[in-house]
Amino acid sequence: xxxxxxxxxxxxxxxxxxxxxxxxxxxxxxxxxxxxxxxxxxxxxxxxxxxxxxxxxxxxxxxxxxxxxxxxxxxxxxxxxxxxxxxxxxxxxxxxxxxxxxxxxxxxxxxxxxxxxxxxxxxxxxxxxxxxxxxxxxxxxxxxxxxxxxxxxxxxxxxxxxxxxxxxxxxxxxxxxxxxxxxxxxxxxxxxxxxxxxxxxxxxxxxxxxxxxxxxxxxxxxxxxxxxxxxxxxxxxxxxxxxxxxxxxxxxxxxxxxxxxxxxxxxxxxxxxxxxxxxxxxxxxxxxxxxxxxxxxxxxxxxxxxxxxxxxxxxxxxxxxxxxxxxxxxxxxxxxxxxxxxxxxxxxxxxxxxxxxxxxxxxxxxxxxxxxxxxxxxxxxxxxxxxxxxxxxxxxxxxxxxxxxxxxxxxxxxxxxxxxxxxxxxxxxxxxxxxxxxxxxxxxxxxxxxxxxxxxxxxxxxxxxxxxxxxxxxxxxxxxxxxxxxxxxxxxxxxxxxxxxxxxxxxxxxxxxxxxxxxxxxxxxxxxxxxxxxxxxxxxxxxxxxxxxxxxxxxxxxxxxxxxxxxxxxxxxxxxxxxxxxxxxxxxxxxxxxxxxxxxxxxxxxxxxxxxxxxxxxxxxxxxxxxxxxxxxxxxxxxxxxxxxxxxxxxxxxxxxxxxxxxxxxxxxxxxxxxxxxxxxxxxxxxxxxxxxxxxxxxxxxxxxxxxxxxxxxxxxxxxxxxxxxxxxxxxxxxxxxxxxxxxxxxxxxxxxxxxxxxxxxxxxxxxxxxxxxxxxxxxxxxxxxxxxxxxxxxxxxxxxxxxxxxxxxxxxxxxxxxxxxxxxxxxxxxxxxxxx
Length: 837
Known about the structure:
Elements (H helix, E strand, L loop, with lengths): L30 H12 L3 E2 L2 H12 L5 H15 L20 E2 L8 H9 L11 E2 L3 H7 L1 H4 L4 H8 L2 H4 L9 E2 L1 H5 L5 E2 L2 H21 L6 H37 L3 H17 L7 H18 L5 E2 L1 E2 H4 L1 H10 L4 H15 L8 H6 L9 E5 L11 H13 L5 E6 L5 H12 L6 E4 H10 L4 H5 L2 E3 L3 E3 L4 E2 L2 E7 H8 L15 H4 L19 H33 L3 H5 L2 H6 L10 E9 L1 H17 L5 H9 L6 H7 L12 H18 L9 E2 L9 H6 L33 H8 L14 E4 L6 H17 L4 E6 L2 H9 L8 E3 L4 E3 L5 H9 L7
């Protein structure tokens, strides 16, 4: 092994094994980290009612206050009264309104489903994502049901929409899914942690007070801003009080502690909390502590997904450098501190409804991405010691969060590439990697300055974001563009999926017209007519989806502003506007399109077999999918064979249709205006939504049968009959990069699955590095990896007790394989196992 300067604590080329190993030993070199990790896995997930009861009390008490002040007073009431804990071995303390691994509840967004599922389909009886509920909790939740009836964000959204706008959503046919922000809070942003660390809450309050003092309150605008600033001050004071509660608790525990070392640690923790309760961070331990408190309070205010951490190796580096150079802390101590902090992020849990849990299994807040590497604002390599140490922390903990994201550019150091390759080969689904050469142009296309574009961070799964300046509404919806294509070839009707389809009562099978008349495949005379029909259907359905998203945006602004989160955005302080009202510098909305490969292969089948070779007719293909391919065995086998051109094989015949699918979706999303004064930005990925979207879709012309997943993000098709990519990883890279990834300004996503054997040795490692170099040189934006065999995953299904901590890369996120729903597990197993042979 080799060692380089500024490569962290461990050798950059240290080998950590390949793939998951049953019965492996402890992962971290730090005993404390291993103990905390064990404590985490030994602790059950459960539902905690305390936040729900406190927020209800506050809404009753402050019912006559302006809404923004009411929500601020509610957060204050929660932070002043919620139970708090400090756990054994902790160095970083603080919770998000619930104990470790307990889920707080947020009835102001939605409540009815919680009590209904609690009574009828108990959370501890779910097949996956189980939560326990202590005796008496359900009765407590029942007691507040009447109060929240008609007051929730979800009900307000539903009340704004006409049936014509609901019919395509999760409230109707499931053409697109709005449930993330329909049922919960807004996340998917990066707070300005650097500003908070430098100024502390006292500094932020001073900024707010200065703006408040300068207001002209003889105008309606002035009064609205006054309410907003008052709300910000309430939340800032509440945050200070909350952190000081932990300082007191740490002092109390220190007084009782008999172990000398732990007593000293608790005293330092108390001192750290006292400092960051109001003042700026003065060292790296305080900085990490303040970061964690700041994030936990964001999540206590609003349960939005994917509140991410930005370029942590950059904004934390000044503290690291000063502490190491002064001798205050060693590299080894800081490494241990990072690993403890990583595990701490996993303790915050979020209850999802059963349908969402099946489709997007995993009990974290989803998408707590942490970005390292890349270029600085001058375009120079920004790699530093912390870049490597944060990767090592991920390797040593192998937890669901944080979702580690590594930025690469043309001049990224070889040592970093090797470190990342070794992490990938370890087979725990982290990190995912991003290409500055594609992501920076995408950020520029969204109107960023060059400095801002170079400083991008990843939020959620793959979304490109400007830290502390962007409220992007990333992940606003998942659209099934494969379903749009289905209607395009069937005159605005669903292909018959039969009464077994859960949406059958809504759509009425193939008989009820839902979209505009665009003709039938039975009558089209050219591929251009098919593409034109697809374009018209896309325009119609994106209009409906956008109406639903805008209604969600309005409802959140009216009922659930976020004055605390807005405190961590300087532009909100400057403008006097909440994030929900357009207070950020950049206000976007980013829905995702799903099913590129499905459409590409369907168009290829149609063009080749109907128009070029005349081996079948449009009517026969429609009949085949209407009958779920039953009775059409020869045609089904042909469509799923190598005799037909398929996307993912560096085959221009099929790949050009992927470009059609991709560009048509982007065209109908980009540059629309949103209610916050910003624009819509297209994303082309679905995370794991390809599974639930496929579950409620009939058979399709690419060779799917009813209920099978649609194609995975930017990847090729794999049906129950066969994988449609058969020319290896380089061919996939060539196919995928024929699309302009920078046009998808909300991100793209590409999954890779390798067997452990093909990545073994230095040759396997370097093959992986070379593949990524080629893919990124061709302007691919993103990649993420599973290094695991189907055989291992099948064994985990049969013997889950042996694989309790086996992380896999689902799509934009990693989760424990044994916690996934069976459809998600099978989708992972059926992905093509690639090799370099």
